[in-house]
Amino acid sequence: MTRTADTARATDTARATDTARATDTTHELAAFLRTRRERLDPREVGLPSPRRSRRTPGLRREEVAELAGVSIDYVVRLEQARGLRPSADVVEALARALRLAPDERAYLFDLTRQRPRAAGGPATSTAAPSSVRLVADLSPLPAMLMNHRYDILAWNGEMAALLVDFAALPPSRRNAMWLCLLHPEIRERYVDRARVVREGVAHLRAAWAAYPDDAELNARIAEFIARDEDFARRWAERDVKTNGHGHKVMRHPGIGTIALNFELLMPLQDADQRLVICHGADEESRSALERLRAL
User: Fold this and answer.
1) What are the structural domain ranges in the chain?
2) DSSP letter (8 states) at residue 57
3) Inter-residue contact 147 to 125 (CB < 8 Å)
4) What is the DSSP letter of 244?
5) Distance CA 227, CA 182 (A)
6) Biggest alpha carbon distance in the chain?
7) Which pLDDT band, with edges at 50, 70 and 90, does 78 fall under?
8) Which value, in Å, is the radius of gyration of the alpha carbons in the chain?
9) Confidence band (pLDDT; 50, 70, 90) for 47?
10) DSSP of 75-110, one letter per residue?
11) Is the peptide bond before 140 cis (omega within 30 degrees of 0)?
């Protein structure tokens, strides 16, 4: 019994450590640089093919250092999470050396606090009255306003009919990611839920890098890691993605299967907020939305 209890405590401690590191920028920077280095084939960066198989995948640290124009010791210290804060020039050099995609480059700049924050003040948790009116005026298209945490700040009747009566939920549950992951009914509505979760996690990771000191956001992420294995696995993969549009297919209990395209727009005055507008992806889905409004 003692050995079992000790094992359980050790497992809980390790899990808590992993969760804490998941929202620590120093350890995340180290892990992100390491995973991006390991995925690169030397031939992709103009290095000759090795004559013998390498013991580790991807590039060596010394190769990254040479490509970025920094010392090997500097790369080692970054990957060992020793608390370095690279300059903007070094971040740009690392991004080029590691062949980062645009979203990954922005993520690296956010992790190192080298990307200027967009104008508009600190992150907000409420919607401006003008934004609330805009969401309502977008009817009959389903629309809602979210902040960087995926908290739903405003919605119109069509969006509530499509997903859930947000007004009936506690404020802490008015969160698009929480609904997708943990709401017993909403989570089953997504036909391709695995893809939706993967893309949602990639978006949330990018948002976290921009607001790493947001205690509420860190608490959300810790909850998702602890309660949803799919989220925890996706978060550990460190995929980063931001885009302004997408596609989802849902099973609605009142209207059946519906394919939706959606657009994400950013208000200039609130750069951390996103306006989500949905419309039917085909004629059948547009007709389904009309039936939903009638309901």
Assistant:
1) 2-111, 129-294
2) S
3) yes
4) S
5) 8
6) 68
7) very high
8) 22
9) confident
10) HHHHHTT------HHHHHHHHHHTT--HHHHHHHHH
11) yes
Question: What does the DSSP 8-state code read for residue 36?
Answer: H
* Tens-place pLDDT, residues 177-212: 999 999 999 999 999 999 999 999 999 999 999 888
**Strand duo 274-280 + 256-265: pairing:** antiparallel
Using CA atoms, how far apart are residues 111 and 239, in angstroms rounded to an integer?
A: 14
Q: How far is CA 272 from CA 92, 147, 204, 217, 276, in A?
A: 24, 6, 12, 13, 13
One-letter identity of residue 210: A
Rounded distance, CA 105 to CA 91, Å?
A: 9
Domain 2-111 bears CATH identifier 3.40.50.2300? no
Q: How does pLDDT run across 275-292, given as a tens digit for each residue?
A: 999 999 999 999 999 988
- Tell which wins on pLDDT, 178 or 117: 178
CA distances from 35 to 29, 79, 100, 229 (A): 10, 10, 11, 21
Cα 283–chain centre separation: 31
Structure-token pair, residue 182: 């943990």
Separation between Cα atoms, residue 182 and residue 176, nearest integer Å:
10
Integer Cα distance of 184 and 169 in angstroms: 13
- Beta-bridge partners for 265: 275
Q: Which token pair is 172? A: 């802490």
Question: Which residues, listed in sequence order, are joined to residue 71 by a DSSP beta bridge?
Answer: none
Give the Cα separation of 180 and 60 in Å (integer). 39
State the pTM of this model.
Answer: 0.78
**Listed residue (3, 63, 67, 61) closest to 33, CA to CA:** 61
User: Among all chains, which residue has been given the structure tokens 């690296």?
Assistant: 108
In CATH, the architecture of 129-294 is: 2-Layer Sandwich (3.30)
Mean pLDDT, rounded, of the chain: 87
